[in-house]
Every structure is written in C-alpha cells, then in structure tokens.
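Researcher: Here's a chain I'd like modeled. Treat it as a single chain, no partners, no ligands.
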Amino acid sequence: QVQLVESGGGSVQSGGSLRLSCAVSGGTVGTYSIGWFRQVTGSRREGVAAIDIQGTRKYVPYTEGRFTVSRDNATNTAYLQMNNLRPAETDMYYCEAGLNIRWILSVYEYQHWGQGTQVTVSS
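Model: Modeled as a single isolated chain. Structure tokens:
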C-alpha cells in the first residue's frame, strides 16, 4: 500500500522559507503524479503545486515563482520548496499521489494522500 508522510512544516515569519517533504513508501515517487494541497479544517482543499510523471509542473498563480515542486528518485521523496512565505499561506499542507491524473492540481483525482504538515506564517 502506498503511504505518504509529510514533514518539514513549521512556523516562520513573513518572507521566510520552508521545505516540505513527502516521503513515499509502497511505491516509486517517479511513477506517480504528486500534488501539494492546502486545507484549513472545515474548508475545502485547494491545489498549490504539482508535478506529473513527465516532470511537468503546475502552480497556482499566487505562488508567483516562489514555490517549487520536485521529486528525488534516489530518496523516493517529493518536495515543496516554499520561499518568501506570506501569512495568507498559513495552512495544513498535504501531498497526494496518483496515477492517470488529468489535471494535476485537481483535488478530486488522486488516490493516495498523507496526513499533512502545518505551515504557519506570521506577519
């Protein structure tokens, strides 16, 4: 069974950076599309950044080049580098893995998900 474990969240001031990790077990990270999503309890999950099996990246516009999604096949881990963080980006962040994903920022298409890691950005 594929399992995803997020880590790397924390508390930073506005303008700070975090690198979120998504450790994959039970599967090979390079064979899945990987999406990063954010969600506050009681709200809808939203896509942030994703990478497909071809290596094509997609980002929501507000990231404005500040975020980078990647994967490292050697460590079987996906990453989300988050630079110049803003308070509005405070949230729980989740990684998701899926096969046959049409739109990699879709919250509806992934088959596997992690438990999330908290990102808090103070002003």
